[in-house]
Amino acid sequence: MVDLANAHRLPSFSNTRLLADVGGLVAYAPNFTDLYREAAVYVDKILKGANPANLPVAQPTKFELIVNLKTAKALGLTVPPALLARADEVIE
């Protein structure tokens, strides 16, 4: 998908950092390490006897913004400095 978008000079945005790592322009995704850690807390509670139906539904609270400058340059785009300043990771 990323190769097709880049071949047609289309900026690609995704909800998983994997696509930014392989050439997508921007990714805004939950931090999966935190999600796995939270899942382990739930498993621990269930193994200690908690009823899964009584546990609250958890949603991601930490998100990452990844900008791929290499792709931006290949597409002829200029990424605003404000966006780069807010990015958690910039791929150069």
Tally of individual helices: 5
> Which sequence of SSEs, written as H and E, runs from N to C?
HEHEHEHHE
User: Biggest β-sheet: count, sense, barrel?
Assistant: 4 strands, mixed
Q: Number of DSSP strands?
A: 4
- Secondary-structure-based class equals alpha/beta
The low-pLDDT segments are none
**Percent of residues in β-strands:** 15-25%
Total of domains: 1
- Mean pLDDT across all amino acids: 93
| N- and C-termini, Cα separation | 21 Å
Oligomer: single chain
Radius of gyration: 18 Å
Q: Indicate the percent of residues in helices.
A: 40-55%
- Strands of the widest sheet, in order across it, are 1-2-3-4
What is the 3D form?
A: elongated
Question: Can you characterise this structure?
Answer:
The protein contains five helices and four strands, in the order H-E-H-E-H-E-H-H-E. It has 92 residues and is of the alpha/beta class. The protein has one domain (2-91). The mean pLDDT is 93.
Quick summary:
By secondary structure, this protein is an alpha/beta fold. Helices cover 43% and strands 17% of the residues. It has one domain (2-91).
